[in-house]
Amino acid sequence: MINGMKVALQLYSVRDVMEKDFEGALRKVSEMGYEGVEFAGLYGYDPLKIKALLNKYHLIPISAHVPVGELAADPLRYIAIYKKIGCSYLAIPWLGENDRPGRAGYNKVKAVIIRAAAECAKQDVILLYHNHDFEYGDI
Description:
The protein is an alpha/beta fold and about 140 residues long. It is built from six helices and five strands, in the order E-H-H-E-H-E-H-H-E-H-E. Helix content is about 45%, strand content about 15%.
């Protein structure tokens, strides 16, 4: 713990290992001392199998990155998948340049985000946005 806060690993940072050895990667993350994880894909694994692996390796599922396109297509599906795993948060990992504020696609993506956030709230899940420095370039 750091100042009473648990430390989680964004699994995107070990995506190459996750793709080759999903369970082994979770085991190693746990052995390294991480207490939680943020998902960036499930690599074809069943959510209940993932939940069992997290329990086995004493890892807390904090959140998951879910692309805005997946949320646009079927927000309830992705909310249900990550709730089965135990995630309390879903994070939109980024927006394409055309979908950012001030761009042509922004109003459409904004509507998707508002809808997804409302659906998340109904399910006691919080929708987040994972920002980057390049998104502030036009400010």
